[in-house]
């Protein structure tokens, strides 16, 4: 039995997993959750994901939620296949975890609500809170200034090699531009070069194309 992902091709958290599976060259089936009709809140879905969110990984009777935990599972299960997303040595793995924590605390904490304000609220006909947008943007910019100093010294967030910590940034990082804030990335030369390199990966291009066909 192969890997199934219960999610939606347009969902940022589903994309976080899809890109990792493509890097690992693991075929998977996307079991589409009907968001528009509240499928993510249905009793069947809540049995798999108690918070009523996507994505959920199903692997031969094993269920796992939280996109970053799922990527770590994929990275370990398919170690030695496709792109290595985390080294096995103690210090190398610790540096990847450090970078992953940076993504969660210093990037996602601001980028995700900024995308919510500038993209999703508009999509759902809600009103963007401009004061919140300004505050989130200012905080994100301060963090990205630090990213720029890190990435001036090394090509990837955990060092010389790509890791899942870099890939974690792709969905919300790409949607910043959709919401009119892509310049927080493109105005910082090292962040720009790093992010463009990530976006150029076939795994991401396929993930974007899959979202457009849905
Ligand atoms: N931390 C969770 C977040 C999951 C999440 O926020 N999923 C969104 C779609 S990208 C969702 O299901 N939103 C609907 C909701 O929260 O009700 C993860 O990384 O898997």
From TrEMBL:
BP term (GO), one: glutathione metabolic process
Q: Which Gene3D superfamilies match?
A: 1.20.1050.10, Glutaredoxin
GO cellular component, as recorded = cytoplasm
GO molecular function list: glutathione binding; glutathione transferase activity
Its organism's taxonomic lineage begins at: Eukaryota, Fungi, Fungi incertae sedis, Chytridiomycota, Chytridiomycota incertae sedis
Record-listed E.C. numbers: 2.5.1.18
Organism encoding this protein:
Geranomyces variabilis
Descriptive protein name: glutathione transferase
Q: Which InterPro entries match?
A: Glutathione-S-Trfase_C-like, Glutathione-S-Trfase_C_sf, Glutathione_S-Trfase, Glutathione_S-Trfase_N, GST_C, GST_Phi_C, Thioredoxin-like_sf
The family this protein is said to belong to? Belongs to the GST superfamily. Phi family.
Q: Where is the GST C-terminal domain?
A: 89-214
Give the catalytic activity.
RX + glutathione = an S-substituted glutathione + a halide anion + H(+)
Tell me where in this chain the GST N-terminal domain is found.
1-82
Q: Which domain of life is it from?
A: Eukaryota
Q: Which UniProt keywords apply?
A: Transferase
């Amino acid at each position: 039995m192969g890997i199934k992902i219960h999610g939606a091709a347009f969902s940022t958290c589903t994309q976080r997993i899809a890109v990792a599976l493509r890097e690992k060259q693991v075929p998977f089936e996307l079991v589409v959750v009907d968001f528009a009709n509240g499928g993510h809140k249905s009793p069947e879905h809540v049995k798999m994901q108690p918070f009523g969110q996507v994505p959920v990984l199903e692997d031969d009777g094993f269920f796992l939620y939280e996109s970053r935990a799922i990527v770590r599972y994929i990275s370990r299960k398919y170690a030695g296949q496709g792109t290595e997303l985390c080294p096995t040595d103690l210090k190398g793995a610790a540096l990847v975890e450090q970078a992953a924590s940076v993504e969660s605390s210093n990037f996602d904490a601001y980028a995700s609500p900024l995308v919510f304000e500038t993209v999703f609220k508009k999509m759902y006909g809600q009103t963007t809170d401009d004061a919140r947008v300004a505050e989130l943007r200012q905080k994100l910019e301060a963090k990205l200034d630090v990213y720029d100093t890190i990435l001036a010294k090394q090509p990837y967030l955990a060092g010389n090699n790509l890791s899942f910590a870099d890939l974690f940034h792709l969905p919300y990082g790409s949607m910043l531009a959709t919401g009119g804030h892509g310049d927080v990335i493109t105005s910082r030369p090292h962040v720009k070069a790093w992010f463009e390199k990530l976006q150029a990966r076939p795994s991401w291009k396929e993930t974007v194309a899959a979202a457009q066909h849905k």
